Records
---
Amino acid sequence: MADTAKVIKILKCISAKIRENEQFLTDLDAAIGDSDHGINLARGFKKVDEKLPELADKDIGTVLKQTGMALVSTVGGASGPLYGTAFMKAGAAAAGKNEIDIDDFLVLIEEAIGGVKLRGKAERGEKTMLDAMIPAAGAMKEERSKGADVKNILEAGVRAANEGVEFTKTIIATKGRASYLGERSIGHQDPGATSFTILLEAIEEEF
Amino acid sequence: MVGIVLVSHSKKLAEGVKEFAEQMAPHAKVAAAGGLDDGTFGTSFERIKHGIESVNEGDGVLVIMDLGSAVMTTEMVIESLEEVKAEMVDCPFIEGAVAAIVVAACGEDLENVKKAAENSKNTKKF
């Protein structure tokens, strides 16, 4: 179970982890993109951090929606509209809720994936964050159906997301800046899939 | 008059194309929404929003974007501006901007300005 306070704690943890990994994510993006993924996300989550104190008495839907809006208005790269839409879609699904359980969380992840697909006009297998998000969601649902506990469900999600990141090394980018590199993008992991995995690790630690 | 907004990751690119296209239509309503507020590369929701609002005279606004996040961020700005008739067009950045700005300055409506920008895709250089 997570209430607003816990969701805020998770967001703070995400923000801290993203900022710790700012250089790493930017370096990954330098190889196949425009060298700004870490810088952009760190700027976005700094803004989220600043906004969180005023959201303490709000419902979870509002917290997630405001997080998305902060990212959209400050990130400045593709991860802004993509993560922004993901959080806003999740927020819409959590509207009015003051507590969410693991089943609600799995619904929010599905909503987030739907948002990213729609905004990025992308599918799995194009070397994007979806290559971590979709397998992670699938693995978590499978664990849930086996009756696993929250910890195991989220661990399975992180594991699948990491495998998804590894998989992105083997494929050609067909979306985003990396698509200009064509087959030269093979061998490099996708920065967006990596940042999503970091985000899910924070959720796994704090949920 | 239909307003035109040029959205680029680069402040210089958006401003340069604006300046370049305006040579042919000095009275066109054009806004450059390039880069982030601090001048670095990126696309800014606020700058695009402000750009659209600044050229909106009620006849609609056509937005021309460079790549990737410029498109996605513009899409989100347009979704948030329910009261403004703003549309994106899929066209080459420079050729599309020149075509749209010239046609808009002639007083054509949004549909025709958009068509002019789209048609610039088919213009051969040689």
---
Amino acid sequence: MSGDGDGAGEQSRTLHVAMLARVEGEASMRVLVEAGQVTDVELRIFEPPRFFEALLRGRAYTEPPDITARICGICPVAYQMSACQAIEDACGVTVPEPLQHLRRLLYCGEWIESHALHIYLLHAPDFLGYESAIELARDRRDVVERGLALKKAGNAIMSTIGGRAVHPVNVRVGGFYRLPTAEELNGLRATLTRALRDALATVELVAGFEFPDLEHDFTYLSLRPAAGYPIEAGQVVTSSGLAFGAAEFDAHVSEEHVAHSHALHARLDGAGPYLVGPLARYSLNSAALTPLAAEAAAAAGLGPVCRNPFRSIIVRAVEVTCACEEALRIIGEWEGASAPSVPVEPRAGTGYGVTEAPRGLLYHRYQLAADGTITGARIVPPTSQNQIGIEHDLRSFVQARLDLPTDELTRQCEQAIRNYDPCISCATHFLDLTVEHREPGSRAHRQPGSGAHP
Amino acid sequence: MTGPVLVIGVGQRDRGDDAVGPAIAQRAAGLLPAGVTVLERAEPAALIDTWAGAALVVVTDAVRSGGQPGTVHILHACHGPLPLGTGAGSTHGLGLAEVIELGRALGRLPPDLVVVGVEAGQFRLGEPMSPAVASSVELAARAVAEVVSTG
């Protein structure tokens, strides 16, 4: 992290927010300050799903689970699950219950892995006042080791069910290529029992952090299944009272191009911004949490609805607990399946899939020709749905902190953006933050971020 | 060298020069003696667990240090921090340099860890590797083989 300029007295300052490191120019944040008021916040993100939508056209209906898994190194299972669901929907196939349970189990692995990475290696250092997980590890080795152990437990599920921890290769339209043996599943029990203990300790740890006083009133949107906490299935519901199936997503959510961004901005029924992700899932489904997760949430003081984005770290820890309990339940109840997959014959039509990626709802839609060739694809990732919300959050957040020195403002902005765990691979890599100050009647002084947009 | 030897290619194949890590590992596989495990990882944070128990680990990755694209860097990570900032060229939450430092802080680096990197020019989605970077794959793969044979 670095800052140019020395703070409040100057006309313009540029903050390089290296929160996600690596490839510069793919994301930046610009804050416009006029006469001491933040008048605009623009988050610019480059969005790979558009590239993949084009790549998918002309490919076979069996290919989306493999191709879309490449969009994100952190949440490949989410892409695979939404893709499978959408293709199966287009072909009129419902996979049998045991295979659905196995999909939920695999997805639990990804939640544990992704949330543990975010909580311990990216977000906790912010709250504990460390520059990064490296400094945290030097002082609090036990804390970082616990995070890595949790992450490893998630990886163990993904390797066992998915065939590989990164980019699982065992997932196919109609189910899996191979079923895990009962022995393999039972082999996960000890790891997951330890992980559950670690998850509960995580809730306790993060509940003790200090949280800035910030609440938002955005509409929340998530899945809600007939029973249980939403992961791999369910109806779309909102805090404004809507409830609809995946096929109606397009009718309710419109995406619009905004000049400053490569990403499309999603709006719900043409109204204001909405949010997806842990806060939305929790607030719309807290009554459906697993027993220990519910207990931990109550002990952490979460209440049935959570509207402070900084407390999302507690919700993530509660969700890790929930995923560990669910994984143990599914393994405990596993009685095998008659076949690793069911046949899926192509037919002309459109199919829709929605699942809950760790960062929020992920929507896929595919149009198929009669022979199964993909003629159209649409992918709406969680981060682009949250983009307007992040901008709104940052607007009030920056306004209240304009007198901070550049470095400190940058650090706090990083922490605030991390509340949304923006998908590192599928939405943003390197964030240049430009704060532009304009005085009334003067010309703008602007120092844009250093990145060139592709 | 006694004990398991691992070669890990880090990077995303769809992202321009970020594909160089996996490409080097794949090419090196044909040059390495039997018994050396060659893996591919898209996410560096997974490395700390991946290399547990290995005696020698060679990680291949795209690198950004401001040098000429295609330049091959051979970096020994066990002697101290890599001379790389957070600009090292992989596309994920924690970069390779950060993961190595995290491993060091936790006492979880393998006894011998070498990074064979190729200076990258661009990470554009859907682009092939830059010609200068692609033409360095062979040289880098030979460097990996040499590290393994002399390790």
